[in-house]
């Protein structure tokens, strides 16, 4: 871990472990220290935005507060050799966001570096999101457990060297590092899926010749297979997608994605719908998902914890991610005008970030429907 990553990770962990009930830093610094903080590059002081709201959500999701904080405190995780407070995962998205994961793998910390995204989430999306998640326990929207913002201006945040905002969310890849001690370890695959019919300049201008391979690799993935479900599973999956995307459309959000995970192979003899845990194989003692919080599954299993395929050979997980791009922000309007100008020369249609939110919802739902193959 670089010095930059270490300092940012420590700042995040310190805020989560020590913040007061109102989310503010535990200690009020002296006037001199507050003045000197302007010259910080990577060491930041974060406050927890609406900690009361997120604490209530964690209660709805039955996340034990002591267990939650233990995920961010390596000293509280017994029986393991800890690598540090957070483990960096690098730049994993086209937006330039950086990721950390907790040492136990249960949570991800994602930076929200662009002002129009974190401002939209805080000002327009936060309350509707919380109300929706309270009312919809089976929602596919990723569970966000904390939202942090810098408590002060610094050289690092002003120059963009250190992100001023982060979210903490559940990691639906949780359990990937665990496997059977006796049997074969299952294969974990993941895809970040968006409707591919939109105009993507990196892919569509000059056949992608003007963009580097590293740039194109950050575009949405393609899933060249099917999610094999029973009719009841498919109907419930589509119903929940419609419910969740209606909220996003009403908030004017676009460009969100379906993060799909496939775990295979599994033993069909131990994966019935009445089983609270999904076993990896005949000789395995490790469940999917792990039996400890926050992924101890309800009965029946959910898309968070794992849905067994109709043929009993695979387990699927899914979540809707990255609902931070709003069509009504100044940045989105500028991008829309730019794409409209380009379409006067070469009509390629809208991008996923410049289309209407209801139109994006329609294409997104159609994409998800085409992913499913019903098998009884």
UniProtKB/TrEMBL annotation:
<dbReference type="GO" id="GO:0005886">
    <property type="term" value="C:plasma membrane"/>
</dbReference>
<dbReference type="Pfam" id="PF01504">
    <property type="entry name" value="PIP5K"/>
</dbReference>
<keyword id="KW-0067">ATP-binding</keyword>
<dbReference type="InterPro" id="IPR027484">
    <property type="entry name" value="PInositol-4-P-5-kinase_N"/>
</dbReference>
<feature type="domain" description="PIPK">
    <location>
        <begin position="1"/>
        <end position="372"/>
    </location>
</feature>
<keyword id="KW-0418">Kinase</keyword>
<protein>
    <recommendedName>
        <fullName>PIPK domain-containing protein</fullName>
    </recommendedName>
</protein>
<dbReference type="InterPro" id="IPR002498">
    <property type="entry name" value="PInositol-4-P-4/5-kinase_core"/>
</dbReference>
<keyword id="KW-0808">Transferase</keyword>
<keyword id="KW-0547">Nucleotide-binding</keyword>
<dbReference type="InterPro" id="IPR023610">
    <property type="entry name" value="PInositol-4/5-P-5/4-kinase"/>
</dbReference>
<dbReference type="GO" id="GO:0046854">
    <property type="term" value="P:phosphatidylinositol phosphate biosynthetic process"/>
</dbReference>
<dbReference type="InterPro" id="IPR027483">
    <property type="entry name" value="PInositol-4-P-4/5-kinase_C_sf"/>
</dbReference>
<dbReference type="GO" id="GO:0016308">
    <property type="term" value="F:1-phosphatidylinositol-4-phosphate 5-kinase activity"/>
</dbReference>
<dbReference type="GO" id="GO:0005524">
    <property type="term" value="F:ATP binding"/>
</dbReference>
